Amino acid sequence: MTTDFEPTPFGIPSDSGGKDLGVFMPMANGGWILSKNAPPLDGSYAYNRKVAVLAEQAGLDFIMSMSKFRGYGGETGHWNRTLDPVVLMAALAEVTSKVKVWTTIHTILQNPAVAAKMIATLDQVSGGRAGLNVVTGAYKGEFSQMGAWPEGVDHDGRYDLAKEWITAIKRLWTEDSVTMDGKYFQLDDCQSWPKPEKRPFLVCAGSSKKGMRFTSEEMDAIFLTGGNAQELAVASRLAKEDAAELGRYVRTYSMMTVVFADSDADAEKTAARYREGLDEEALWGMMRAYGFLDAEIGKENAFVAKSRSTFMTPHVLGTPETVIERLSEIFEVSDTDGLMLIFPDYLTGIPTFGTHVLPALRERFPGKIKVPVHG
Ligand SMILES: Cc1cc2nc3c(=O)[nH]c(=O)nc-3n(C[C@H](O)[C@H](O)[C@H](O)COP(=O)(O)O)c2cc1C
What we know:
Blueprint: E1 20-24, H1 45-58, E2 62-64, H2 85-94, E3 100-106, H3 112-126, E4 130-135, H4 140-144, H5 155-174, E5 178-181, E6 186-190, E7 201-204, H6 209-218, E8 221-223, H7 229-244, E9 251-260, H8 264-276, H9 280-289, H10 302-307, E10 315-318, H11 320-334, E11 338-342, H12 346-364
Parallel strand pairs: 1-2, 1-11, 2-3, 3-4, 4-7, 7-8, 8-9, 9-10, 9-11
Antiparallel strand pairs: 5-6
Bound molecules: flavin mononucleotide (FMN).
Domain Luciferase-like: 21-332
Keywords: Flavoprotein, FMN, Monooxygenase, Oxidoreductase
GO molecular function: alkanesulfonate monooxygenase activity
């Protein structure tokens, strides 16, 4: 099946077959490593500001912030402190000028007219660099703590709600008056200005069939959760074929935590240190959030075995050469359109990536990875 449909252009490398490289902003304390032995990462604005500036200096294409309302606890208090992603990205838009600024909103939390205006505002603040990661909300406790869990709306129902939500937003961004009598949202001569100059970039990370279909219908990109090149190749093809059935092209991205070391042996020692420092309480907190029953908490199962690495995402540890090989393999084998990077310590990780990894990737993939424009 051909998946050869044109992507909507957004001024990023994937517009013309290149690879979009970005950073997952560390706006939650502890980042994506559940270990007492990981470098302390406080999730503060001061830290995120430095990260955004470094990402822009390195010539990366986007910075993205997630949205989280309840942490996992434990000795590290993992993700107990999180910044608001819209306020954060608006501030970071002011300290950058080129990198795209993508934020996240939960469809069950914001009225679409409020969200339409927030993103139109971010678009103005950033000079057209705004993007939105649309998330339905999956973890009941995160929302029931604030009386905002929609009882009686199941997983797929939450994507139906999201579909109405984004339809309303797209209309508010382009039409003078919107009247809509939906199952979840009702708009009556609803008006919203300013309009974004151009529709902001939309991305979703739905991994279910329903989430993928929603993405194919409404979004510009999807985050895939797989880690190795072969898994990603399958997932990327499925996502692109799903979009192609609707005559659309959806970009596919993956995530990678990158841990640099002077030698691969040193990297192994770092990984062992993280494993020794696993914050078990935080792991139990994460499992509760993922919907594991209390009876299962504290027992060994496949999820726990995998989590003992303490890495919450796919990861690569080693010298820059090792990292270059792994990322090259992903791009060569998987046909994904981009990658979102995570580091244990972003302030050393981004410059190392920019100096030692990016030039090699540019050589391996001529014309596909952006060259930074300074000044
Ligand atoms: C890169 C990435 C970013 C995500 N960001 C958020 C987020 O900010 N907030 C959230 O509640 N869920 C987030 N999720 C979870 C997804 O939105 C989605 O619910 C999850 O992947 C399960 O897919 P499903 O909804 O199709 O079942 C993220 C997932 C990924 C892979």
